[in-house]
Write a structure and sequence with these properties.
This protein has helices at residues 3-14, 45-61, 79-87; strands at residues 17-25, 33-40, 68-72, 92-93. It is α+β, with helices and mostly antiparallel strands. It has a single domain, classed as Beta Polymerase, domain 2 (2-Layer Sandwich), CATH 3.30.460. It has a 4-stranded mixed β-sheet, sandwiched between helices. A hairpin with a 7-residue loop joins strand 1 (17-25) and strand 2 (33-40). The chain starts with a helix and ends in a 5-residue tail after the last strand. It comes from Streptomyces fradiae ATCC 10745 = DSM 40063.
Amino acid sequence: MDFLSAAGAEFEAAGTVLTARRALASIEGDPPVLFVGVQLASWEESARSAPMEALGRALGAVPVPWPVNLVLLDIAQDPVGDWMLEKVRPFYRREHGA
């Protein structure tokens, strides 16, 4: 199983993530970082912590060679998040009624 599949399965189990996108980026020549941006079903505190816990479980099962940053796309006012929403197709999308 690859990391994105593991992350998608963990997001599905968490039940709070609507979509997840990813981007590998190098900022000002630094080593690459994997950004995982999520849209949430709810903005409650427990809903905001669930994606981080799910991402941690996915990384435990399938490590990646880069640092990983979680971006809460609904909450962050961030150019990276805006770009992800506009340009990057989700690797995970929660099924309606799930």
